[in-house]
Amino acid sequence: MSEQGRRAVAKHGKRAAKFALVGVLNTLVDILVYAGLLLVSFHPLVANFVAFLVANIQSYFINARFTFATNGKAASVSVFGYAKYALTHSFSLAASTIVIAVLASRIGAIPAKLVAVLLTFGVNYVASSALVFRGSTTSTKRPEQTK
To answer: How far apart (Å, rounded) are the C-alpha atoms in residues 132 and 30?
Structure first.
């Protein structure tokens, strides 16, 4: 593998680990909002949508500042950027909704949510890296190489 290829793999490995760390926080927010809404008698599918939206907004901002920052500078954020983020992650919302619809009555609403979260992690990272924060992830050159 070329040096450039090794740097790209290393960068994505680090970013995927950071994305996973943010994902843990995101998942906690998601599950807490979901569980809170279930406690006040929201339907599991409605609670899933609201929890997704709350967690997704905070995830966008944290990922821009932490996961996809380049040379200490946060990736740019905008309404359009969030729209792309929300759109790409809406596929995960659809998948998690299907998982919850199928599994909630069989294994319980919270375990079904956990299964859904595990199934959507990889898709979310690839979509975030390739489609949303692409400008902060495409260059594999070190700063001294770009001068």
So the answer is: 21
